[in-house]
């Protein structure tokens, strides 16, 4: 156990250093910030602390994987903004009564685009895409603490350009079953490009995230708060000087409360039984980012719902960041171990 922890600590320090060196301000791989879990997407897009038998949740925090996963397979599809389509497949299984492993493959396709020379001459079309293959390992430190690591290999193809990156997530979770309290800390996307697109390296969007979820004893509700982008305090955004005019000059907004809430994602789940849940999420950063676009009342809000039996699970999510950008996500999980009993 001590040797494993030392190896994980040494690897984490190496990846932190790699991320710092590679961070030149030119960030790529923003698709890594889109969760493949419909439950997480419906709870605002970020959640590190949901404790449930759902392999799709592990993408948010490798410490959510555990030996309770009995040969579980998960697949998902998302119709994202524009012509983008995201797909994923994951498989997880326990190693022993304290450890587990999982693998995940994600595909991000951005639709057909027009290729042109710098002078505007059209040369054809191309379909840019990213593929991420991830390996995950987790270990129970004791009855309430669990740690995990995920290593991601990312291949990108954009017309005649390609790149390759390696990064890792390091997570820890504390869960008290009696009080239904879950706390998590995750270092996300530590690493960088091994092969660059063209003349300069692009950094991956590495981040420090924290989260808490608490179930209420009197009603079947769970409240979650997730803090992201903890590497820096100020997260300014642009807004119209005159909110009633679409041609008004843009001004930068960076108030104390604005910065605070742009770090936070809120989620509420109603779960009357272990077989059914409904979730509502709110992300102020998404809503404020859409300030200069055609946002509506739903901007920043998202919805999720799910059903499951002992062996099958189904989830869906919906969000509309602005009037022209509706997105849907579907998840399906199959516990092969339960089916074979």
Brief summary:
The protein is mostly beta strands. It has helices at 2-22, 38-42, 256-262, 284-289, 336-339, and strands at residues 72-79, 85-94, 99-109, 113-116, 122-126, 129-140, 145-158, 161-176, 181-195, 207-215, 221-227, 237-240, 250-253, 264-273, 276-283, 301-308, 312-319, 327-335. The protein contains five helices and 18 strands.
Which terms summarize this structure?
341 residues; mainly beta; Porin; 14-stranded antiparallel β-barrel; two-stranded antiparallel ribbon
How is this structure best described in words?
This protein is mainly beta. The chain has one domain (2-339): monomeric porin ompg (Porin), CATH 2.40.160.40. It has helices at 2-22, 38-42, 256-262, 284-289, 336-339; strands at residues 72-79, 85-94, 99-109, 113-116, 122-126, 129-140, 145-158, 161-176, 181-195, 207-215, 221-227, 237-240, 250-253, 264-273, 276-283, 301-308, 312-319, 327-335. The strands form three sheets. A 14-stranded antiparallel beta barrel has the order 1-2-3-6-7-8-9-10-11-14-15-16-17-18.
């Amino acid at each position: 156990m001590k040797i494993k922890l030392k190896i994980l600590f040494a690897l984490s320090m190496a990846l932190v250093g790699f991320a710092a060196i590679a961070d030149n301000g030119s960030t790529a791989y923003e698709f890594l910030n889109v969760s493949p879990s419909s439950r997480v997407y419906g709870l605002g897009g970020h959640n590190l602390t949901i404790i449930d038998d759902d392999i799709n949740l592990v993408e948010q925090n490798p410490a959510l994987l555990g030996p309770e996963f009995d040969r579980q397979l998960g697949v998902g599809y998302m119709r994202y903004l524009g012509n983008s389509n995201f797909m994923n497949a994951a498989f997880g299984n326990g190693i022993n009564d304290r450890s587990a492993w999982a693998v995940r493959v994600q595909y991000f396709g951005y639709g057909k685009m027009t290729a042109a020379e710098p002078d505007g001459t059209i040369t054809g079309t191309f379909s840019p895409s990213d593929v991420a293959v991830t390996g995950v390992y987790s270990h129970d430190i004791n009855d309430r603490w669990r740690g995990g690591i995920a290593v991601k290999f990312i291949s990108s193809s954009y017309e005649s350009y390609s790149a390759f990156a390696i990064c890792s997530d390091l997570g820890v979770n504390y869960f008290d079953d009696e009080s239904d309290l879950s706390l998590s800390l995750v270092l996300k996307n530590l690493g960088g490009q091994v092969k660059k697109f063209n003349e300069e390296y692009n950094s991956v969007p590495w981040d420090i995230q924290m989260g808490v979820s608490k179930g209420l004893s009197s009603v079947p509700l769970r409240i979650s708060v997730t803090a992201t982008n903890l590497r820096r305090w100020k997260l300014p955004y642009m807004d119209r000087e005159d909110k009633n005019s679409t041609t008004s000059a843009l001004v930068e907004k960076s108030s104390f409360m604005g910065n605070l809430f742009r770090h936070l994602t809120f989620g509420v789940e109603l779960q009357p039984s272990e077989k059914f849940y409904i979730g509502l999420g709110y992300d102020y950063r998404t809503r404020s980012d859409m300030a200069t676009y055609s946002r509506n009342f739903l901007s920043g809000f998202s919805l999720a719902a799910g059903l499951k039996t002992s062996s099958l699970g189904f989830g869906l999510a919906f969000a509309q960041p602005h009037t022209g950008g509706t997105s849907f996500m579907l998840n399906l999980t199959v516990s092969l171990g339960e089916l074979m009993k």
